[in-house]
């Protein structure tokens, strides 16, 4: 029987669970994917991810930053300040996973739907 994994005060049944805690959910992977080619401002992310709410984007960015996947840099000390987000070195390690997920999504999109396969797009 496999032992649970304990890291940062949390217990996980396996490493997949650990990874999904960091990048799982509807938006974290999408945000990370949009940051894979370089830094972006909050407004740029909002324009690129049109269906995310401002509150959700803000919360997800804070969680990704707290988990060490992205960094937040503030330029200037008087409003309006410039805030940019970028992948950290740790965040860069997830890029191959995100690209594989993107490739798989493209495959699903291009695959003819077969009722026997139960693929719904």
Which sequence of SSEs, written as H and E, runs from N to C?
EEHHEHHEEHH
Q: Label the structural class.
A: alpha+beta
What is the 3D shape?
globular
How many strand segments?
Answer: 5
- Which ranges are low-confidence, i.e. pLDDT below 50, for 5 or more consecutive residues? none
Distance between the ends: 38 Å
* Fraction of helical residues: 40-55%
Radius of gyration: 17 Å
CATH arch. level architecture of the domain at 27-110: Orthogonal Bundle
The largest sheet, given as strand count, sense and whether it forms a barrel, is: 3 strands, antiparallel
Share of residues in strands: 15-25%
SS element count, helices? 6
CATH superfamily of the domain at 27-110: Winged helix-like DNA-binding domain superfamily/Winged helix DNA-binding domain
Q: What's the CATH C level of the domain at 27-110?
A: Mainly Alpha
CATH topology of the domain at 27-110: Arc Repressor Mutant, subunit A
Q: Largest beta sheet: what is the strand line-up?
A: 3-5-4
Query: What is the subunit arrangement here?
Result: single chain
Average pLDDT:
92
